[in-house]
Design goal:
The complex is a heterodimer of chains A (371) and B (47).
Chain A lengths: L1 H9 L8 H19 L4 H14 L12 H10 L3 H13 L3 H5 L4 H6 L2 H10 L5 H8 L6 H10 L5 H13 L1 H12 L2 H4 L12 H18 L4 H15 L4 H23 L5 H4 L2 H29 L20 H13 L6 H26 L1
Helix pairs in contact in A: 2-3, 3-16, 4-16, 5-10, 5-15, 5-16, 8-9, 8-18, 9-10, 10-11, 10-20, 11-18, 12-18, 12-19, 14-15, 15-16, 19-20
Chain B lengths: L7 H5 L1 H33 L1
The chains are: A mainly alpha (371), B mainly alpha (47).
Chain lengths: 371, 47
């Protein structure tokens, strides 16, 4: 009898298991499946999926006051350190060359942020304004910006916002093409754009990140950490004397932060917080943000075409959502599909990079409004 | 559930949409102008 009691006490924790926890295991399993089998943002969805299981074990020692994930959360997410450090790596990966040789393309990066502000209005019908703004920034299509804004605005829905932001970034190849096709004719998609690369001096490449930081800092001071770290990473890349640091930022730093970022975000995926109708609503609003961003970029390009003699392929407007470099590649592939001699890559990548800058500025403006 | 349905909030917050989009276009416009100037200056120096 005593042996039986001992045995029961060993497995006593099983009685603390709830069905909500099991649902979260299933969600974690789906994220791991999407990461491994579908290759959807595996660097983030896999740690998030595993973390979702880890924090939803009854009496999990990974969370709570002494839990390692709580410690990591306080050390890296609550103070916005991890996403900002990740931005150094992202900045070091970005080549602004195509954008600098044709700076006019930057305007599409601005137009494609429309989804953020449209979703802000839409989400404000259901949530208080700070949560609505945090949800709207899913449309930045940029994980670190979403984390920084949602954290700075004290959103209660950080876990759901992160899952939506990273899942939709992975789903860009599925979300964008139907929206682009719906808004353009075959003839428009076949428009060829001449690429005349102009020589961009190294001085320009060095001064560009500094100038962007100063302008963004003057206009949207809340964005200065985001823009500054992104541009610092780019300055390391372009200065020409820190190749080893640039390589470290692109690979080692970005990978290290990514490992901790995903699993730490999962600490916000506890069943009692995550399994709520609000989560479904946030996922829906995030999708709206991505769709309206894409539509905003395409429609803006079509409006510009009304005034231009030399027409642009309106599909490049869709690359203005951040989601670098997926969005740029999708537009290029769609162009090739319509006409195998239609190469849009350099234009779409230029627009895509400008979307990265514009989304960070949008995040800064949101923080200016509500922070 | 922690949310209420307040449809008028969409209209009430349209101002943020206007200010936000205007803000982004102004900042990006300034960056475009400075980049063009920077490119020209760099080209002139190299010539």
């Amino acid at each position: 009898m005593e042996f039986l009691n001992d045995l029961l006490s060993v497995f006593g924790n099983v009685t603390n298991l709830t069905w909500q926890m099991v649902v979260m295991w299933a969600i974690g399993g789906i994220l791991i499946f999407l990461a491994i089998k579908k290759d959807m943002e595996p660097t983030l969805l896999l740690p998030m999926g595993f973390g979702a299981i880890l924090v939803n074990l009854p009496l999990s020692g990974a969370i709570g006051e002494e839990g390692v994930l709580t410690t990591l959360y306080n050390a890296g997410i609550a103070n916005e350190l991890f996403p900002l450090l990740l931005f150094i790596g992202i900045g070091a990966m970005i080549d602004f060359g195509p954008l600098l040789s044709n700076p006019k393309l930057m305007i599409f990066g601005a137009a494609a942020q429309f989804g953020i502000f449209f979703t802000l209005c839409l989400a404000s019908m259901f949530f208080d304004i700070n949560d609505a703004a945090s949800i709207a920034i899913i449309g930045a299509a940029d994980g670190p910006t979403s984390i920084v804004v949602a954290q700075a605005l004290n959103s209660k829905y950080l876990g759901a916002i992160m899952v939506a932001a990273y899942s939709y970034m992975a789903l860009v190849p599925i979300i964008q093409p139907p929206v682009i096709k719906l808004l353009t004719t075959k003839k428009e998609r076949q428009i060829k754009m001449e690429y005349k690369p102009t020589q961009v001096s190294q001085t320009t490449k060095i001064l560009f990140p500094i100038i962007i930081t100063v302008i963004a800092g003057l206009v949207a001071p809340s964005s200065v950490a985001l823009v500054g770290f992104l541009m610092f990473g780019n300055l390391i890349r372009e200065c020409g004397v820190l190749n080893s640091l640039s390589e470290t930022a692109q690979k080692v730093l970005a990978n290290l932060i990514t490992i901790f970022l995903g699993i730490t975000i999962a600490s916000q995926m506890q069943a009692d917080k995550f399994l709520a109708p609000e989560t479904l609503l946030i996922l829906g609003l995030g999708l709206v943000a991505f769709v309206v961003d894409t539509a905003g970029g395409v429609i803006f390009a079509k409006i510009l075409n009304l005034f231009l003699k030399k027409k642009m392929n309106p599909m490049i407007g869709a690359a203005g959502i951040s989601a670098f470099p997926m969005s740029g590649r999708i537009v290029h592939k769609m162009g090739l599909k319509e006409d195998s001699s239609n190469f849009l890559l350099m234009h779409s990548m230029g627009v895509n990079v400008s979307g990265q800058i514009a989304s960070v500025i949008a995040g800064g403006l949101i923080l200016n409004f509500f922070g | 559930m922690n949310f209420n349905f307040e449809p008028m909030n969409f209209i009430n917050n349209l101002g943020y949409m206007g200010k936000g989009m205007l803000g982004i276009f102004v900042v990006i416009g300034a960056i475009i102008i400075l980049t063009v100037v920077l490119n020209k200056a760099a080209n002139n120096i190299s010539k």
